[in-house]
Design goal:
Layout lengths: L3 H8 L3 H4 L17 H15 L7 H10 L6 H13 L4 H17 L5 H13 L19 H17 L11 H22 L9 H14 L3 H21 E2 L2 E2 L8 H5 L6 H8 L11 H6 L7 H7 L6 E7 L16 H9 L9 H11 L7 H15 L13 E7 L4 E5 L14 E4 L5 E5 L21 E5 L2 E7 L8 E5 L7 E5 L2 E6 L2 E7 L3 E5 L5 E7 L2 E10 H4 L2 H9 L3 E4 L2 E6 L3 E6 L4 E3 L2 E3 L5 E5 L2 E4 L4 E6 L2 E6 L2
Antiparallel strand pairs: 1-2, 3-4, 3-22, 4-5, 5-6, 6-7, 7-10, 8-9, 9-16, 10-15, 11-12, 12-13, 13-16, 14-15, 17-18, 18-19, 19-20, 20-21, 22-23, 24-25
Helix pairs in contact: 3-4, 3-13, 4-6, 5-6, 6-8, 6-10, 8-9, 8-10, 8-16, 9-11, 10-11, 11-15
Length: 638
């Protein structure tokens, strides 16, 4: 119904292919800012040989080849042109790569005359937004946060490249510049003001691509400044929430390929920018763009990224709730402002469904085809209860994220996020002992890992989650209307050094990092449908999971950790739990009740946009000031 090619864009990546590289294993610590140029050359050399050659991504391999002085592969470049001509969904990825190539060629020509003409023809003919009167012949996703900006960036760069030319839709290049600026500026402003709604997601890859394109090639100084500021915030997010080079935070959108392979889609970008992790991965856009860009990550941020020996806790609030929009001067009846809600994938929220329907009918773009059905449901709910419930399973509304990272483990969760609502690609919590020794739970969808939600990524029904330091409590309550009547945990036994069970707890060790996973109902550790011993199945519609982290520094040896946690009392009463944690104290949480620690109620919604050891800023603040090792950095938030 929505974003079908977004699923293919990342979900189609086969896990085996991600792991076959013999030339790149995980790197060690950041080897210094002076090595960034060397890493750029290393990555471009790697990607020039290992990058994907197929339609959507082939252009990025060619960019890498040019970056290291290798000849372009003409047979694949012809496929790039065909991809743009096809108007296939997601070819806005491809076009942004092709436009980057065209700007590089303009500065230092390397294309043949015939190919340069082909580029000009497809750029002039492209449909850059849904208000272009030409009807789409195939489904195209314009509306998600990343796609909106990809289209607007491509239109701006195309208009600049051919200012005086007439495009196929009857607009000149200068008119396209004006049209694009009216769209990309609000998008950049919303990211500065509210953060990413696709928080800590696989789509940071393409968002880095478009932001690098704006930083390098936008002619308007303010757009370049805003794009650089947003890109700094994206880098800060990756710095805060990566563990040993793997983006291990709770996520608004994720795919099984990133969860199960140990190689996240943004892993090459993390290694490129911070010097830790892996270059592996054959469908990457952001890393190629950044390796050929003038953008440089601030040194203070790159220092935070790899400071794994210093334990830290991060509290971060991102995106907004639709009902709070008037607090920020956002009008539900304003078509342009409604783009924010579509970027959040809040198409059918009761407060904005009327404008969504109007946009779909006006421009023939349909994330949903059954608006009237939902409007009828909302009308009945209001008559019966006085209010209508938000039902959009794709929604990426306000996220309140907690991440704790130390030398041997990381734990991250989005607190109290859309509990009990239908889900899509949201990833509410995850524990990490290494890049591939990760543990999390979900309410699974089908076994086709290309769909969302599926067996290992996303949730059919979202749980209620809370994190207190080194503990996550996750509660599921699956309605009878849902066919899948169980939840499960991903526990990759072969990736751990030790796994053992004791009563209702399962314990795991990797190096000096320890993990204990409790379930309120009996579990069975078994092979999943791929034949891997990793599937902890908990039968029943109600289950409570507790994840407790630890390490050698705190508990001594692993046996002591096991004995300590196993002796800790856990009392479950239906959908409520009380856990006597050895690290936090007496923790209580429930489906309806508050989170308490030793009787004190803890607020799950943060007032802070960022609350970190290096600096804090309230949600709505104008800037964030960071200080570390004698350095100071101001990040723009408005």
């Amino acid at each position: 119904m929505i974003d079908s090619m977004d699923c293919k864009r990342l979900g189609i990546v086969m896990l085996l292919v991600l792991m076959v590289s013999s030339t790149s294993i995980y790197a060690g610590r950041n080897d210094g800012d002076g090595a960034f140029g060397q890493r750029c050359r290393e990555y471009l050399e790697y990607y020039s040989e290992h990058g994907d050659t197929t339609w959507l991504y082939g252009v990025f391999r060619q960019l890498a080849r040019h970056g290291v002085g290798k000849p372009l592969e003409s047979r694949y470049m012809n496929d790039v042109i065909k991809t743009i001509k096809s108007n296939h969904d997601c070819n806005d990825f491809t076009l942004n790569g092709l436009l980057r190539m065209a700007y590089i060629d303009r500065k230092q020509p390397f294309m043949t005359g015939g190919f340069r003409d082909s580029v000009r023809n497809v750029v002039l003919d492209f449909k850059y937004w849904w208000d272009d009167g030409r009807r789409d012949t195939t489904y195209r996703c314009y509306h998600t946060e990343n796609h909106q900006a990809l289209y607007h960036t491509a239109e701006l760069l195309a208009g600049q490249l051919y200012k005086s030319s007439m495009f196929s839709n009857g607009m000149t290049g200068k008119e396209h510049i004006s049209h694009a600026m009216n769209l990309i500026v609000p998008w950049l402003d919303n990211r500065l003001r509210f953060g990413f709604s696709e928080w800590l997601s696989t789509y940071y890859d393409v968002e880095a691509l478009l932001l690098a394109n704006l930083v390098d090639y936008a002619e308007d100084r303010e757009i370049r400044r805003k794009a650089r500021s947003v890109l700094d915030l994206l880098m800060f997010d990756m710095a805060l929430h990566n563990f040993r080079g793997y983006l291990a935070g709770a996520s608004g959108r994720t795919y099984a390929s990133s969860l199960l392979s140990g190689v996240h889609v943004v892993s090459p970008m993390v290694r490129l920018m911070f010097g830790v992790g892996t270059y592996e991965g054959f469908r990457n856009t952001g890393a190629v763009a950044l390796a050929t860009s003038g953008y440089r990550c601030p040194k203070l941020i790159s220092g935070i990224a790899t400071d794994y020996d210093t334990s830290h806790t991060v509290i971060q609030r991102t995106s907004i709730n639709v009902e709070d929009a008037p607090l920020y001067g956002i009008d539900f009846s304003d078509e342009r402002q409604c783009h924010l809600f579509w970027g959040m994938q809040e198409f059918i929220h009761p407060l904005c469904i009327s404008m969504s329907k109007q946009i779909s009918e006006k421009y023939d773009t349909w994330p949903y085809h059954d608006y009237d059905r939902y409007i009828d449901i909302y009308t009945r709910e209001i008559e019966e209860t006085g209010r209508a419930a938000d039902r959009d399973r794709f929604a990426l509304s306000e996220g309140n994220i907690t991440t704790v990272r130390c030398a041997s483990w990381m734990l991250s969760a989005v607190n109290d996020f859309r509990m009990g609502k239908a889900g899509y690609q949201q990833h509410p919590w995850m524990a990490s002992l290494s890049h591939d020794a990760v543990v999390y739970t979900n309410h699974p969808g089908g076994k086709n890992l290309r769909n969302s939600p599926n067996y290992w990524a996303g949730n059919e029904v979202l749980p209620r989650v809370a994190q207190i330091g080194d503990i996550v409590v996750c509660i599921y309550a699956i309605p009878e209307s849902h066919k899948t009547d169980y939840t499960h945990a991903y526990m990759p036994v072969e990736k751990m050094d030790t796994v053992m069970e004791r009563d209702s707890w399962t314990f795991a060790r990797k190096g000096d990092g320890y993990l204990a996973l409790y379930c309120s109902v009996p579990t069975r550790l078994m092979e999943d449908f791929r034949g891997e011993l990793c599937d902890m199945v908990a039968s029943g519609r109600s289950s409570i999971w507790i994840c407790q982290m630890g390490d050698r520094e705190k508990y001594g040896d692993f046996d002591n950790f096991v004995e300590t946690i196993a002796a800790s009392e856990v009392v479950v009463n239906d959908k409520d739990v009380c856990y006597a944690s050895p690290s936090a104290g007496k923790v209580t949480f429930g489906w309806d009740g508050p989170l308490t620690v030793d009787g004190k109620v803890l607020e799950l919604r943060s007032a802070y946009r960022y609350h970190t050891p290096w600096g804090s800023a309230l949600f709505g603040a104008d800037e964030l000031t960071l200080k570390r090792n004698g350095m100071e950095l101001k990040l723009e938030l408005r």
